[in-house]
Amino acid sequence: MENLDITVLRALADWRAAGQSALLVTVVRTWGSSPRPIGSIMALRGDGAVMGSVSGGCIEDDLIARYTQPDADDALPRSGAPQFAMYGVTADEAHRFGLPCGGTLELLLEFDPDAAALAQLVQALDGGQLTHRHVRLADGQVTLQAAGAPAELTVSDTELVNTFGPAYRMLIIGAGQMSEYLATMAQFCGFAVTVCDPREEYYKSWSVAGVRVSTDMPDDTVAAMAPDARTCVVALTHDPKLDDLALLQALETPAFYIGAIGSRRNNAARHERMTEHLGQTEESLARLRGPIGIYIGSKTPPEIAVSVMAEVLAVKNGVTLPRDMEVAYVKDQQGLAGPGSSCLLP
Predict the structure, then answer these.
(1) Three-class SS of residue 71?
(2) What string of DSSP letters covers 51-65?
(3) Cβ atoms within 10 A of the Cβ of 218, count?
């Protein structure tokens, strides 16, 4: 599943390429509580079709009515320079549009965005390129600029700059069933996903669209990707020949999350191998997570993938999880002898 922004932009690009009138709506400022964060986008077609959202629904309904009813007193134009629109200025208006606790938000409305520029943006995003989209407020002219790092939306008297693309990357080692579930969730959460597996019987059956598949050895793939502080590396093969060197390669990078699936026993064996045969110490392995995931009693590949994705997001967002959500701690408390019958279970 695609990142929501890319889905919105792709639909908008298709509409405009077909010659249909369309509106691109961007949340540019918020005051108080807001249903959607700054930078959120929505595409609205001339016949009322909508992709994306900027609120809980009432603002979308108002925009649809104003855009699809040209004879209304407060109708929106179908062309011209971008315009700002404010919702929730008063308490009555906030209540009318379903904004929480007196929230107010300001939107930028772009009428009939240029089809060629949209197609170019979608192509860049399909290639995994983080991209700044500059909108000149005087006339709506758009320029695109490759970005080296994610950035917050900015708006001045002359232009709006919004950044699109995968701000975070995930490398999954192993192309098995659980990897497909994890890759799907990671894409939905805005990650650009690469899966690495040199085993033909696995990579040939990979079925998740939008994921880059590498058939190189995992440690070579890690080196080629050069993980940064916005990259996570997750090993899911249970095969030391594939996992261990790749994990060690990742530990030499600033990747924000590095971990491997498995039981407490498997995790201890991994540390023992790395210290006895690969010159590692407990200090050098301190960033290596395992068993990965949070404890939710998961017993199936999709449930385990959910637990892993939850932990990745918690680390990404700087959230310290309580100890009673750690797999090893909970299993120690329960007196279980390693997952044996549940060697994957977070």
Answers:
(1) coil
(2) EE-SSSSHHHHHHHH
(3) 28
What's 168's DSSP letter?
Answer: E
Burial of 105 (0-12, 13-18, 19+ CB in 10 A): buried
Q: Is residue 10 classed as helix, strand or coil in its secondary structure? A: helix
Above 60 in pLDDT, residue 343?
Answer: no
Q: Are residues 189 and 282 in the same domain?
A: yes
Please spell the DSSP secondary structure of 280-339, one letter per residue: --TTTTTTEE-S-SB-S---SHHHHHHHHHHHHHHHHTTPPPPGGGBHHHHHHHHT--SS
Q: Are residues 119 and 183 in the same domain?
A: no
11: tokens are 């639909």
The CA angle 90-91-93, to the nearest 5 degrees, is 65
Are 57 and 8 part of one and the same domain?
A: yes
Last residue of a domain, one of 103, 131, 164: 164
- In this structure, what token pair is assigned to residue 177? 């069933």
Angle between helices 240-251 and 218-225 (to 10 degrees): 20
Rounded CA separation 116/139 (Å): 16
Q: Which amino acid is at 208?
A: V
Tell me the C-alpha to C-alpha distance, in Å, between residue 157 and each of 76, 107, 231, 317. Answer: 22, 14, 35, 32
Distance CA 174, CA 338 (A): 23
Whether 326 contacts 310, CB under 8 Å: no
pTM: 0.67
pLDDT tens for each residue of 245-285? 999 999 999 999 999 998 888 888 989 999 988 888 888 89
Q: Per 3-state DSSP, what percentage of the chain is helix, strand, and coil (rounded to 5)?
A: 35, 25, 40
Domain count, the chain: 2
**Residue whose token pair is 């590949």:** 301
Task: For residues 127 and 176, state if they share a domain.
Answer: no
Give residue-wise pLDDT tens across range 17-70: 999 999 999 999 987 666 678 999 999 999 999 999 988 667 888 899 999 988
Residues 103 and 182 in one domain: no
Q: What is the pLDDT of residues 320-332, one digit of tens each?
A: 887 666 766 677 7
